[in-house]
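Possible regression after last week's pipeline update?

I re-ran a chain I had predicted before the update to compare outputs. Posting the input and the new output here so someone can diff against the archived version. Not blocking, just want to make sure nothing changed silently.
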Amino acid sequence: MLIKKIISVLTIAMFPALLFAQSGKVSDNLSLPSKILNGDRKYGIYLPPDYATSERNYPVLYLLHGSGDDQTGWIQFGEVLNITDKAINEGTATPMIIVMPDANTGTRGYFNSMKGDWLYEDFFFNEFMPFIEKKYRIKKDKRFRAISGLSMGGGGTFMYALHHPELFSAAAPLSASVGPVTLEEAKTTYRRNTPDATDEQIETYYNRHSAVALVKAMPDAIKTSVRWFIDCGDDDRLSPGNTFVHMAMKEKQVPHEFRIRDGGHTWTYWRASLPKVLEFVSESFHQY
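New output (post-update):
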């Protein structure tokens, strides 16, 4: 009898721990057909611990990988499953769906090409997002949608949230490639890949793909439309560009959080950043 009581007490004591140990699920080899990019496109996804047992709809975070990685990067190296499970179980993040598209097949990057022969951004907004938000139980209001990413994906985060502030409640670029800071820099950079581009084409492309230029041109009416969290390591070669964006936002009076922490352009840095990103976007989902 005493042994049974001890077992019963231990079971009750362990029950909360068992609940906290619930795990989400990740898949990294899913795909959808794309007419815009003329082929199948892969993506990875994180589903929160109670997704399979509930009937609720969830907020969504689009999490973009960096150059040289693909949709598996955040899963394999970023440990998105363990980090997100821990944040949800500890109550610092709300249960959410995290979607990780592949931007490293065919042509690398999240933007439309200058010549218009590769339209990844069109694919993302016109095919990918509608597909994802129809296939999964996702809340479709702006306030329940956020975006983040590292390096090249940080650049994608800046561009997508600046191009479409009506779609995202929060944006968290990490160690972002922010694009050319000046038009003269753009002429040098863009002509490497498009040597026959005219000055007019370069200026048009620069104005749409430089975070500094986009912030400076931002209408006052949308300055508070997106909550911004910008994070970059002090040893990162991209930290000057992120600082220029920070300064442009300060001058434009765009509310934002800006962090320069100890570290470089490494997965060690981004794994440490992800819990704060999850907390930051959760505040938006909860209507801070």
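Follow-up from reviewer: compared with the archived run. Confidence is low (pLDDT under 50) at residues 9-20. Marking as no regression found.
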